[in-house]
Amino acid sequence: MRSNWFIQLIGALIAATLLWWAIFSLGYQTFELDIPLEIVNLESDLAVASPLTTIHLSTRGQRFNFLNIQDDNSDIKATLDFKDVKTYGLHSINPEIDIGVKGVRLLNYEPKSFEVSITPKSEASLEVFSDVVGYPDSGYSLGDITIEPKQVLVYGSKSLINEQAKVYIKINVNKKQKTFSATAEPEIRDGEGAKLNNFSFSPQFVTAKVIVKTGDSLKTVGLQPSFDGEPQSGYWVSTIVFNPPALTIRGSADKLAGINHLLTSPINISNQTSSFTDKVSVELPAGVTLLEANLVDVRVDLRTASNNRQITLLPTYANITEGLSVTSVSPPTVMVTLSGPTDKLAGLSRANILLDLDLRGTLSGNNQIELSKEMFSVPADIEVVSFEPSALELMITKNN
Questions:
Q1: What is the DSSP letter of 102?
Q2: What number of other Cβ atoms are within 10 A of residue 215's Cβ?
Q3: CA angle, residues 208, 128, 217, in degrees to nearest 5
Q4: Where are the alpha helices (DSSP H) in 196-340?
Q5: Between residues 238 and 9, which one has the greater pLDDT?
């Protein structure tokens, strides 16, 4: 009797699973997709000067059908056919959409037409950089990446070649455990990292040799202070200097990818009225270690209040491209002069004055960020009078 009951229970569970899968598969849904544009039939002496990237599609179908679409949406094509374009100037081109997935229907697409500027084709020799995708297997890290050839000839619109100076190849290192070589087609990206399909290259493919080493990855990051208490009334923290200003951490590549700075142990500034020095440690996430001793010298400078007040800020970052991190800032701090009522100036703390840098569109390498008063967040009745320096030099690197 008990055996029959168990068999019936198993049968009921199987039937319920099959019913759920049937409902899941038959349900129609709308899916929004951004599909790369492909340029076809363009005359060999012409170039597209407009920054063409993607087209937005609204599609409908069963969820089961969409599960079969490749991650890069390569089953769906969006092309701009230039077969009738023979002259320079502005041309209106309607896209052609090909849904190569059974059971998926196109509802709408935007834009319906592209105004495309056509210019003479130019060429330039540009360096090729690597865009690393994924992380080596646990216990392994990336070494040097050698690209051959180091430069390629880029053919396209002169204006876009001048503006889009970075050529990349994608290199997938996910779960790799040993050194390997990979061949890839170069691509140029716009300021937000989107691929531009307006170019051709010579050679068409380049080769990258990727060294994969035994051992964890390394990353150098800056320090973010934390405080305990407040200075005596009428005083504020004007400058913080760490020695060393940055530390090198060790860990698996996926753990290091999300770490852009290390938070210090609390610096006690309770009732302080003058500058002082101290030693602090840093907080380390699980699985992350330091190459050096966990001890940093810090100097804290304090000043008295007046109708103008100067505060030294450490910038914060927003909208940094996934896979990138800020590894150095020069200079590391910004001195801002504020004005306002004396009592409000005296009550200011670093927590309510922010310098937030929008890093949308920045690429790996040196990036100069021009500062403006609008980048500072201050309380009501407080005004930004001036700041020093007027620009910061950020070194942005890809996470290993």
A1: T
A2: 10
A3: 55
A4: 253-257
A5: 238
Q: Which residues contact residue 172 at a Cβ distance below 8 angstroms, ignoring those fewer than 6 apart? A: 133, 134, 182
The pLDDT score that the predictor gives to residue 209 is 94
Count the neighbouring beta carbons within 10 Å of the beta carbon of residue 375: 18
**Model-wide pTM > 0.85:** no
Q: Which of 66, 149, 54 is nearest to 104 (CA)?
A: 66
Three-class SS of 258-288: CCCEEEECCEECCCCCCCEEEEECECCCCCC
Q: Span 69-76, mean pLDDT?
A: 61
Per-residue model confidence as pLDDT tens digits over 289-336: 888 888 899 999 887 655 678 888 888 888 887 778 888 888 888 888
Question: How confident is the model over 101-128, as pLDDT tens digits?
Answer: 777 888 899 999 999 999 998 888 888 9
Q: How far apart are CA 388 and CA 395, in angstroms?
A: 19
Share the mean pLDDT of the chain: 83
pLDDT per position as a tens digit, 387-398: 888 888 888 888
Tell me phi and psi for residue 179, to 5 degrees.
-60, 140
| Residue owning tokens 């964890």 | 216
**Domains of the chain, each with CATH number or no CATH:** 26-118 (2.170.120.30), 121-214 (2.170.120.40), 217-398 (2.170.120.40)
Radius of gyration of the chain (CA): 28
Residues in Cβ contact with 308 at an 8 Å cutoff, skipping those fewer than 6 apart: 337, 338, 339, 345, 385
Three-state DSSP state, 374: helix
Rounded-to-integer distance, Cα 334 and Cα 192, Å: 26
Q: Are strands 296-304 and 235-243 parallel, antiparallel or unpaired?
A: antiparallel
